[in-house]
Specification:
This protein is an alpha/beta fold and 456 residues long. It has helices at residues 16-27, 39-48, 68-80, 95-103, 116-145, 162-171, 188-198, 219-224, 241-245, 260-272, 298-303, 309-315, 329-346, 356-364, 370-384, 392-395, 414-428, 433-439, 444-453; strands spanning 8-12, 32-36, 53-57, 86-91, 108-112, 178-181, 206-210, 225-226, 238-239, 249-253, 274-276, 283-285, 289-294, 318-321, 353-354, 389-390. Strand 4 (86-91), helix 4 and strand 5 form a beta-alpha-beta unit. The chain binds adenosine-5'-triphosphate.
Length: 456
C-alpha cells in the first residue's frame, strides 16, 4: 500500500510561476511537492529525501535553450537513484532534446505549456511505476529471507510451557523488545513467529536475520541496505533487513555470536531508531518491533566482556526463557505424533504408529538437541521403517545415561533412582516444587530436603 513518504514529488524549474502552478495542481490531488529552482538543490533534496517521482526542467538559465543542464541533471539523478522515475519538462521547440532525455533514462516528458490533466496522468503513471519497483525490490528480498510460517503446528501443552504462553499473551501486543533464551532447538524461532502472529503486526512482514554468520564486510549492507555504487560490488540498490521489516517484526537470531564491532553498529541503530543505507545520507526511521534470540547466557557474556551491556539492556525489556524438551515431557507425545503425521505425508507412508516402548523411550530420553532433534529423529524413523510400527530401534537414539529407559534400573542405586524420579517429576511440573512433592506423595519439607541432598 502506498505510504505518504513514497508519494512525495520533486519539481525542479527556475521559473517560480511554473513551480507554483505545478505544486498547486499536484496538491489538488493530495500529493506533496517540494520545489527547487536549480539542479544542485534538486540533487541535494534527492539525497536527503525519498521521492516517488521527479519533474525536472531542461534549462535553468534565461539565456539557455540547449537542454544541457537538464540532461546533466538527469544523468546525476540516475547515478544516485537508478529507480526514481524522472519526467523532463520541455518547451515545444525542444522536442528533440526530450527524445534524447528519454534515451538517457527519463521515464516521460511533459510539454510546456502543459495541461493539468496531462500532468496528473503522467504523475499517476510514474507513481504506479515507482510503487511497482519498490514492491518488486521488497519481494525479492522477502523471498530470500522469509522463513515458512512456523506458527502452524505449534505444540505447547505441558505445564512448563504455561508461564511462557501467558507471558507471550501479555506482551505480544506491546512494542517492547523481547529476548528469547533457551537451548538449541527449543523453538526460539517458532516463538518469535508466534509473538509476531499474536501482535497487531501479523499483516506486516516478519523478517529474520541470523546474526551469527554475517561477515564484517557485509554487515551494514545486510542490515541497512546499500545504494548502487556504494562499493565495488554494489551493482544495484539493495533493501536491508531493517527497511524490509518496515512496521512488522525484526527477528535477530543468535545475537550472542555477533562480534563486538557489529554490536556497536546495531546498538547505534537501535538507540536512535534511525539508519541509512550504505552510501546514502538519507536517514530512515526504524519502525519495526524487535525480537532477539540466543542460546547463550547474555549476562555471562557481558561479564566476560564479549557482549555490550548497553546492547543487552536495549534487547531484554522482556525475557522469555524456553525450557528444554526434557522439562516438557508432556509435549513429547503430541510433538512426536505431529512429526509422524508430517513425515508420513511427505514420504507417502500410511498407517505408521509408535510402539508403547518407543513412546516411553522418547519420553525418558534427554533430547540434548530438543525439538529439532525429535523432528530429525522422526524423519529418519519414518524414512527407514519397513513395518507399520515404529519401535525403539527405528528411533536410533544414542544411549541416554541419565535415563533408566536405556540403562538398566538394576544397575542404579536407590539414591540414583530417587534423584532421577525427583528430577523427572520436577520437569513435568514445570519446576514447581509444591506440585512435584504432591505428585510423589511427599510433604513439602521432605521434598525440599531431597532436592537439597541431590543438589537440585
Ligand atoms: N512448539 C513447537 N511445536 C512444534 N514444533 C516446534 C515447536 N517448537 C519448535 N518446533 C520445531 O523444532 C525445530 C526447531 O525450532 P527453532 O528453529 O525455532 O529452534 P531454535 O531454538 O530457534 O533453534 P536454534 O537455537 O538452533 O536456532 C523446528 O523444526 C520447529 O518447527
Amino acid at each position: 500500500m502506498p505510504n505518504t513518504a513514497t508519494q512525495r514529488i520533486l519539481i525542479a524549474d527556475d521559473n517560480k510561476d511554473v513551480l507554483q502552478a505545478i505544486r498547486l495542481a499536484l496538491k489538488s490531488e493530495g500529493y506533496q511537492a517540494d520545489c527547487v529552482s536549480n539542479p544542485a538543490d534538486a540533487l541535494k533534496r534527492i539525497e536527503q529525501n525519498e521521492y516517488a517521482t521527479a519533474l525536472i526542467d531542461l534549462n535553468y538559465h534565461l539565456d539557455t535553450t540547449s537542454g544541457k543542464e537538464g540532461i546533466e541533471l538527469l544523468g546525476k539523478i540516475r547515478e544516485k537513484e537508478p529507480d526514481l522515475p524522472v519526467v523532463v519538462m520541455t518547451a515545444w521547440a525542444s522536442i528533440d532534446v526530450a527524445v534524447e532525455c528519454m534515451r538517457n533514462g527519463a521515464n516521460d516528458f511533459l510539454q510546456k505549456p502543459w495541461d493539468d490533466e496531462r500532468l496528473l496522468a503522467i504523475v499517476r503513471t510514474q507513481l504506479r511505476l515507482n510503487q511497482a519497483q519498490l514492491q518488486s525490490q521488497r519481494l525479492k528480498e522477502e523471498n530470500r529471507t522469509l522463513r515458512p510460517n512456523k506458527a502452524s503446528g505449534f505444540i505447547a501443552q505441558s505445564r512448563a510451557m504455561r508461564p511462557v504462553l501467558e507471558l507471550i499473551e501479555s506482551v505480544a501486543d506491546s512494542d517492547a523488545s523481547i529476548l528469547i533464551t533457551g537451548e538449541n532447538g527449543t523453538g526460539k524461532g517458532v516463538i518469535a513467529n508466534l509473538i509476531h502472529q499474536q501482535s497487531g503486526k501479523a499483516d506486516h512482514p516478519f523478517i529474520s536475520v541470523n546474526m551469527g554468520g554475517i561477515p564484517d564486510g557485509v554487515f551494514e549492507s545486510e542490515l541497512f541496505g546499500h545504494v548502487k555504487g556504494a562499493f565495488t560490488d554494489a551493482k544495484e540498490n539493495r533493501i536491508g533487513r531493517f527497511e524490509l521489516a518496515a512496521s512488522g517484526t525484526l527477528f535477530l537470531d543468535e545475537v550472542a555470536n555477533m562480534p563486538v564491532a557489529q554490536q556497536q553498529k546495531l546498538l547505534r541503530a537501535l538507540e536512535t531508531r534511525e539508519f541509512e543505507r550504505v552510501g546514502s545520507s538519507r536517514t530512515q526511521k526504524f519502525d519495526a518491533r524487535l525480537v532477539v534470540a540466543t542460546n547463550a547466557d547474555l549476562q555471562a557474556e557481558v561479564d566476560a566482556g564479549r557482549f555490550r551491556m548497553d546492547l543487552l539492556y536495549r534487547l531484554n525489556t522482556i525475557t522469555i526463557h524456553l525450557p528444554p524438551l526434557r522439562e516438557r515431557v508432556e509435549d513429547i507425545e503430541p510433538l512426536a505424533n505431529s512429526f509422524l503425521k508430517k513425515y508420513s505425508k511427505k514420504y507417502r507412508k500410511s498407517g505408521l504408529a509408535f510402539s508403547a516402548t518407543a513412546l516411553d523411550t522418547m519420553k525418558s530420553y534427554e533430547w540434548p538437541g530438543n525439538i529439532r532433534e525429535l523432528d530429525h529423529c522422526l524423519e529418519r524413523a519414518v524414512l527407514t521403517s519397513r513395518k507399520e510400527e515404529i519401535g525403539v530401534p527405528e528411533l536410533g537414539l544414542r544411549a541416554n545415561t541419565a535415563s533408566p529407559a536405556s540403562s538398566n534400573l538394576d544397575d542404579m542405586s536407590l539414591e540414583e533412582v530417587e534423584a532421577y524420579l525427583i528430577r523427572r517429576t520436577l520437569s513435568r511440573c514445570g519446576g514447581k516444587a509444591n506440585d512435584a512433592a504432591k505428585e510423589l506423595g511427599l510433604s513439602r519439607s521432605a521434598f525440599y530436603r531431597r532436592m537439597q541432598r541431590y543438589g537440585l
